[in-house]
């Protein structure tokens, strides 16, 4: 059984070596740098001047193979046999446990299939240490928290994983024809009896509706409508994560994947 990938394949793996000590730089949410966990060296993720591009829907309806690419060079992918989630990561990251259902991952990772690469990424802002500290604090207020949950408060048990979303802008134009009704009131006189039984004249307002033919157009612009491309999280959990700070979106760079995992989109574009 071959456990080592061939040398050629190994060379293609895109690592971010620390220029000071050669260890792997990892994305550091605290200050948005690539940072070396060993010597503390920091590097800014190169941000190209080009803006995050929003693309035409038609252009992507029939995706050609040339439009697909890997999330990062040398990215690996593994599928959870329990819940079906496909998770992408780059070495030296490993996938031992499913980030969604907690099942042990037994399948061997394979080279990640190309996908429509993301245009933008919302980088993590909370470090692994901060996340597990928050969880520990929350757990300390729960007397009967199950041990399986407490396990996640271990410093190494929390992992960051990027969740895929589609975002849509759309300019809608709707035409309508129909009838528009306008209410008007007419004063009517009627005969009634008072408490003594005498006949009295009274008036009341009666509503009528006058109908007109109506037609027209309504144009509306929708900006950044987010549609989750994951099926692994319940809708209410996803909603609890909102609002996403879309103003902080950065042009996608494989460096953001360093030290993190990413879920492959499960909901297709069309
Ligand atoms: Zn270093
Ligand atoms: Zn799973």
* Rg, Cα atoms, Å: 30 Å
Overall mean pLDDT: 82
**Ligand kinds:** zinc ion
By secondary-structure content and strand pairing, the structural class works out as mainly beta
> Termini separation (Å)?
41 Å
Number of helices: 5
The tally of beta strands, per DSSP, is 12
N-to-C SSE string, H for helix and E for strand: HEEEHEEEEHHEEEHEE
Helix content: 10-25%
- Main sheet: strands, sense, barrel: 5 strands, mixed
Taking pLDDT < 50 over at least 5 consecutive residues as the criterion, the unreliable ranges are 1-13
What characteristic shape results from the CA principal axes?
elongated
How would you write the strand order of the largest sheet? 6-4-5-12-8
| Beta content | 25-35%
Our count of domains comes out at: 2
Describe it:
The chain has helices spanning 7-12, 57-61, 128-140, 147-150, 235-240; strands spanning 26-28, 33-35, 42-44, 76-79, 86-89, 110-111, 120-121, 161-162, 165-193, 199-228, 250-251, 261-263. The chain folds into two domains: 7-122 and 232-262, no CATH class; 172-219, Endo-n-acetylneuraminidase fold. The relative contact order is 0.20. The chain has a five-stranded mixed β-sheet with strand order 6-4-5-12-8, with no helix packed on it. The protein has a three-stranded antiparallel β-sheet with strand order 1-2-3, with no helix packed on it. It has a two-stranded antiparallel ribbon with strand order 7-11. Helix content is 13%, strand content 32%. It is elongated. The protein has 270 residues and is mainly beta. The protein has five helices and twelve strands. It binds zinc ion (ZN) (2 copies). One zinc ion is lined by residues 80, 82-83, 85, 98, 100-101, 103.
């Amino acid at each position: 059984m071959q456990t080592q990938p061939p040398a050629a394949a190994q060379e293609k793996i895109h690592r971010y070596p620390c220029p000071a000590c050669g260890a792997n730089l990892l994305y550091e949410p605290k200050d948005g740098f690539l940072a070396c966990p060993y010597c503390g060296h920091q590097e800014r993720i190169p941000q190209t001047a080009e803006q995050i591009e929003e693309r035409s829907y038609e252009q992507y309806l029939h995706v050609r193979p040339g439009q697909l690419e890997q999330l990062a060079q040398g990215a690996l992918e593994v599928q959870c046999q329990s819940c079906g989630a496909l998770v992408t990561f780059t070495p030296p990251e490993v996938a031992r446990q499913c980030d969604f259902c907690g099942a042990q991952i037994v399948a061997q990772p394979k080279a990640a299939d190309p996908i429509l690469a993301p245009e933008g990424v919302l980088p993590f802002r909370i470090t692994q240490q901060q996340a597990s500290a928050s969880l520990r604090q929350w757990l300390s207020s729960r007397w009967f928290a199950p041990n399986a949950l407490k396990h996640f408060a271990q410093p190494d048990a929390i992992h960051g994983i990027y969740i895929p979303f589609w975002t849509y802008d759309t300019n809608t134009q709707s035409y309508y024809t129909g009838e528009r009704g306008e209410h008007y009131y007419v004063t009517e006189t009627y005969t009634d009896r008072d408490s003594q039984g005498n006949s009295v004249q009274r008036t009341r307002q009666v509503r009528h509706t006058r109908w007109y033919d109506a037609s027209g157009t309504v144009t509306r612009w929708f900006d950044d409508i987010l549609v989750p491309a994951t099926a692994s999280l319940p809708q209410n959990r996803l909603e609890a994560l909102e609002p996403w700070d879309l103003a902080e979106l950065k042009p996608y760079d494989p460096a953001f994947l360093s030290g993190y995992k990413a879920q492959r989109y499960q909901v297709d574009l069309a």
